[in-house]
Fold these 2 entries.
Entry 1:
Amino acid sequence: MIICSNCKHTNMAGAMYCDECGAQLAGRDTLTTQNITTEQFERVQEQTPKGEDLYQPFDGSDAWGSLHLLDTGQVLPLSTRNEFTMGRVSEGQPIMPDIDLSPYQAYAAGVSRLHAVIKREGGRIIFIDLGSANGTYINGKRLTPNVEQALNHGDIVALGKLKLQILLKNA
């Protein structure tokens, strides 16, 4: 067990971030942590100067949305299927998420091998944390594992510390 130096919460061995406050546990001697409120999240659309469109149209007519990686600015389209698992590939492991976030520093950010699911059900977009080690947050609020949460266009999702914005077509 690892005790968080920030909030004194007892975490499972091997956790990179505190389950309670989100502070980084590995290398914690050199880090300063602070609480982040949802008011501090800015939506990308609000930062866009008037008259400019930062997003190009989706390539396929079947694309229903995309994931905008906030750290890199890359956009990953969600098309063809209605459900995608998200996580990272780990060498020698049989777990293969539909959306591999490994190229985007997922391991360092605390993304689990099978972290979450995003799916489209009719007109609703649903997000589910799959019991990840370092949690999932939507607009700063931690999700309860295995419980569906509705998403809206522009929501900020954090898988561990990897932040992405949900962009929905026809939103």
Note: The mean pLDDT is 81.
Entry 2:
Amino acid sequence: MGILVWLGALVSFIGLIGLVWCIVIVWKAKSSGKSDDELKASIQKVMPLNSGALFLSVIGLIMVVMGIVFS
């Protein structure tokens, strides 16, 4: 079950990288001085990526916990 812990940590880390990437994209869009409609469109494009990255992080953490419980 040790492999499940390390695999879960990897999946969680990939999700964390995705979350940071989404933050950077929105931060750049906010600081670029776009209009409200353009900013809203940029944020709406990032939302599915943000949700996917959050999902990966949660699944990775669940894998880590399951690996610890079952070992």
Note: Residues 36-70 form the longest helix (35 residues).
